[in-house]
Write a structure and sequence with these properties.
Length: about 350
């Protein structure tokens, strides 16, 4: 039976980069006979424009029925003034919650071809391969109560709640340990247990879960130190497990170690392995529509989709090799370009088409 993939390009450069990822999927369908059925839907600002809602009911229904979702990015300055529930980001948060996608995997891996593109010294980043496992449907992003109120002194007061129950911590910790088993067998749990009670519980529960994984070495690190260590000596990490907000912040930092946020894919998984796949970067309104965005993070997200949700690991591997091939050929979008012999700056479409050509040539 064919598998259904819901395509949600979203806003800004989302449209352009997803178009290239779809070319890769189409190529695999047509020439390799992969039984994949693609459907399209709206999310974010573009959904708000058509339906007055950043996550229309029909999009959520399509997503629930699909085997996997491929998402571009959401957001843009034109929607920043809207009431919060109507903003594009709410569409993203609601689809994550609506599908129960509590485990967000953000691998940060440096392609050897891009050592020069990192702002860090080559010896600090070359060979980098770490995985951030970010909790995605809880914590301060979703905690209640929240809002802006007037306090007893008549002052406006903004407030949010950082809350985790033990079940939420246990299940994300298990995901991190399972992944570590298949990698370097080390988990570093990030918290702020010296200040925040919710993360003191985080540390306790992660420590309990670790007992079921004696082969995996567990360490704990305060988030401020983790931010510093990621820049100082990132290769010390194998798997980092974090709460929702800490993972949001640390994954942007990790992305820059690899040269460009335009290279990093992600997978957001539910308890059964169904997933939504998206680049970790945003909609980049400043360069939207110019055809210069890097589609590789989205194309690599397709590879993650084939591996984690569609059980097609060979096809995933082929996409990753094709990406390496185009980098070997010297093709670079603006974000990863640095002048040098054999280097050629290309646009979004040329990069996508080069990946398809490399697939065809394998
Ligand atoms: C991310 C993004 C989102 C987040 C925004 C767009 C809501 O920054 O996926 O990292 O904070 O989770
Ligand atoms: Mg983010």
């Amino acid at each position: 039976m064919s598998k259904k993939i819901l395509i949600l390009p979203g806003d800004g450069i989302g449209q352009e980069i997803v178009a290239e990822a779809v070319k890769v999927l189409d190529y695999l369908r047509q020439s390799e006979g992969l039984a994949l059925e693609l459907e399209n839907g709206l999310i974010g600002g573009s959904a708000y424009e058509q339906h007055g809602d950043p996550l229309p009911q029909q999009t959520l229904e399509l997503a629930v029925k699909a085997d996997a979702v491929l998402l571009g990015a959401v957001g843009g300055p034109e929607w920043e003034g809207l009431e919060r529930p109507l903003r594009p980001e709410q569409g993203l948060l609601r689809i994550r919650a609506g599908l129960g996608l509590f485990a967000n995997l953000r691998p940060a891996m440096l392609f050897p071809q891009l050592v020069q593109a990192s702002t860090l010294k080559p010896e600090v980043v070359s060979g980098l391969d770490l995985m951030i496992v970010r909790e995605l449907t809880g914590g301060i992003y979703f905690g209640e109560p929240r809002g802006i109120r007037v306090n007893d002194n008549g002052l406006k007061q903004g407030f949010n709640t950082l809350v985790y129950d033990e079940t939420e911590i246990r299940r994300i910790a298990r995901v991190a340990f399972e992944i570590a088993l298949k990698r370097g067998r080390r988990v570093c749990s990030v918290d702020k247990a010296n200040v925040l009670e919710s993360t003191e519980l985080w540390r306790q529960v992660v420590t309990e879960v670790a007992r079921d994984f004696p082969q995996v070495q567990l360490s704990h690190m305060y988030v401020d130190n983790a931010a510093m260590q990621l820049i100082r000596e990132p290769k010390q990490f194998d798997v980092l497990v974090t709460s929702n907000m800490f993972g949001d912040i640390l994954s942007d930092a990790a992305a820059m170690l690899t040269g460009s946020i335009g290279m990093l894919p992600s997978a957001s998984l539910d308890a059964g392995g169904k997933g939504m796949y998206e680049p970790i970067h945003g909609s980049a309104p400043d360069i939207a529509g110019q055809g210069i965005a890097n589609p590789l993070a989205t194309i690599l997200s397709v590879a993650m989709m084939l591996r984690y949700s569609l059980e097609l690991p060979q096809a995933a591997q082929r996409i990753e090799s094709a990406v390496e091939q185009v980098l070997d050929e010297g093709l670079r979008t603006a974000d990863i370009y640095s002048a040098g012999p054999g280097m050629q700056q290309v646009g979004t479409r040329e990069m996508g088409e080069a990946v398809v050509r490399a697939l065809a040539a394998q």
